[in-house]
Amino acid sequence: MSNQHGNVWGIILAGGEGRRLKSFIRSQYGSDIPKQYCSFTGTRSMLRHTIDRAEMLIQPERLLTIVSKQHSRYVHDQLSDRPSGTVIVQPAILETGPAILYLLLHVYQRDPEAKICLFPSDHFILNEQSFMKHIEFSSKFVGNNPQAIVLLGVPPQQPETGYGWIVTGEQIVGDHQSRAYPVSRFVEKPNAFIANQLFREGSLWNTMIIVCKAKTVLASFKMFTPAMYQAFWGIRSVLGSSIEAHAVAKVYATLSPVNFSCSILEKNPVGLRAVSMQGVYWNDWGDAAHVQSDMLRFCEPKYNSVVPLPFTETGKGGVRMSLVNKT
Q: Dihedral, CA atoms, 231, 235, 240, 244, nearest 10 degrees?
């Protein structure tokens, strides 16, 4: 897989608190470290796994990560080696909308024709090369369909009630591995009856991994969240300067939390496309049950008991549990 794909950029969301997993992490580590900085398997944190996957396709200087000011201890420990200008600090946590818009403007200022790949930093993914081939397929699809916003979906393993689902139409294009579909609608965390129906109909789990043109999704922000868009657009000229942090803090102080999925994606299904990821194991490690299930399933049996280790300033590893990923 080539990592020289022209104007393909990546943005990684690593600014959240991971509230649903806090009690589990506290019970294992004795601290409230955000989950993206934890190394549940092996020696790399979830965030570093995400970075390493993305760099199979995207050049390091085109991979931006948004973090939160209150996590500075962990940011310094794990991201001090990142290229200059690629770690973006938000002053507060206001859901995903402001974070994504802030990163998009950084990319757009540097490359107005950029294609962006959006990666949450709390996903457990096996078959990483296959996963990134789906990202590459989606990037090429967007190159041919610049108004499309592509969501990566996963064929479900069971009628899960804790995930969002994508209901798709007839296949548009595809190959032996990746297939693209129009999006009919979203169903967010359905009850058991609806989840069973979606499962039988072949709907997809929504990973919230997205590929699109930066300017296409910026236009959606402008249409559906005009006040927030104008607030950020007004400071675009200072991005990358010495007064950026001050200007961004003033913008954040005027905002309320905005959820990207609810406020942008679900309001604009016409331009949405879904790519079904065949041959990839994906799980959103948003709660303890998902984490523990995958640990038992994919880690060596002798490491199945969790052994919490203290936080150490050792570079990229983060807080670590003594578990080894088979892959």
A: -80
pLDDT band at 5 (very low <50, low <70, confident <90, very high): low
327 domain-assigned: no
For residue 214, being part of any structural domain is answered with: yes
- Stated pTM of the model: 0.88
For residue 176, is it within any domain? yes
Task: Work out how many domains the chain is built from and give that number.
Answer: 1
Q: How many CA atoms lie within 13 A of 293 on its CB side?
A: 10
> Dihedral (C-alpha) 242, 216, 58, 163: value to the nearest 10 degrees?
110
Q: Look at residue 192 and tell me if it is in a domain.
A: yes
* pLDDT attached to residue 297: 83
pLDDT of residue 222 exceeding 90, the answer is yes
Separation of alpha carbons 220 and 202, rounded Å: 28
How does pLDDT run across 46-97, given as a tens digit for each residue?
A: 999 999 999 999 999 999 999 999 999 999 999 999 999 999 999 999 999 9
pLDDT for residue 310 is more than 70: no
